[in-house]
Amino acid sequence: MVVPTPDLLAQTIKAWHRAGHKGPAVMVCSPLDDPELFHLGVRSTTNPVQLALWHSAGPVTIYATYAPQAVRHVIWAPTIRAWPPQTT
């Protein structure tokens, strides 16, 4: 899910959680100072390696802003391009 601003990002995550989307989630943006997001367990990063370490197995909802640098790094991260993982 990509939204234009950090404020809308926080609102969207909270609304999705209230609507029942309670699985693992991560924000691709600078950390937001929002106690409710912290309580929901939604972490933030702009580092593709950290994102892969946190959520390398299983589904995860990724929320991001239009910030070009953060989104570009995640889109081109080798670990993300390989999703879904290959099974043997």
Relevant terms:
single chain, 88 residues, alpha/beta
What about the largest sheet? Answer: 4 strands, parallel
Strand order of the largest sheet: 1-4-2-3
Helix content: 40-55%
Described by the principal axes of the CA atoms, the overall outline is globular
Q: Beta-strand percentage?
A: 15-25%
Rg for CA atoms: 13 Å
Instruction: Work out the helix count.
Output: 5
Stretches where pLDDT is under 50 for at least 5 consecutive residues are: 69-73, 75-86
What is the average of the pLDDT values? 77
Helix-strand layout with pairing:
Layout (H helix, E strand, L loop, with lengths): L1 E2 L2 H13 L6 E4 L6 H6 L2 E3 L2 H7 L6 E5 L2 H8 L2 H4 L7
Parallel strand pairs: 1-4, 2-3, 2-4
Give a structural overview.
- The protein is 43% helix and 16% strand.
- It has five helices and four strands, in the order E-H-E-H-E-H-E-H-H.
- The chain has helices at residues 6-18, 35-40, 48-54, 68-75, 78-81, and strands at 2-3, 25-28, 43-45, 61-65.
- The protein starts with a strand and ends in a 7-residue tail after the last helix.
- It has one domain (2-81).
- The protein is globular and about 25 Å long.
- It has a four-stranded parallel beta sheet.
- The chain has 88 residues and is of the alpha/beta class.
- Mean pLDDT is 77; it is low at 69-73 and 75-86.
